[in-house]
Fold this protein.
Amino acid sequence: MRLPAMSPRRLARLLAALLVPSLLSAQSAPWMRSGLSPDRRASLLLDAMTVDEKMQQLVGAPGVIPEIPTCYGGR
C-alpha cells in the first residue's frame, strides 16, 4: 500500500506539532537538561522548589498510601 504524498506545509505543521511540546517542557524544567553539570542542575531544582517541597524532602513523609498496610509503615 502506498501512502499519499505530503505537502511541504503539512509536513512543516507535523514537525512543529512534534517539536514544540519537547521545547516547552525543556523550558519549564531546566534542571532536566543533562548537558548541565550536576551542581548546576541541583541549584536550578532547589531554586524552583517551594519551602514546603523542601521540607517534605527533609522529613520524607509521603501522603497516605492505602495500598501499604500499617505493619509495613502505612498510616
User: Anything to note?
Assistant: The radius of gyration is 22 Å. The longest helix spans residues 8-28. The mean pLDDT is 78. DSSP finds three helices and no strands in the chain.
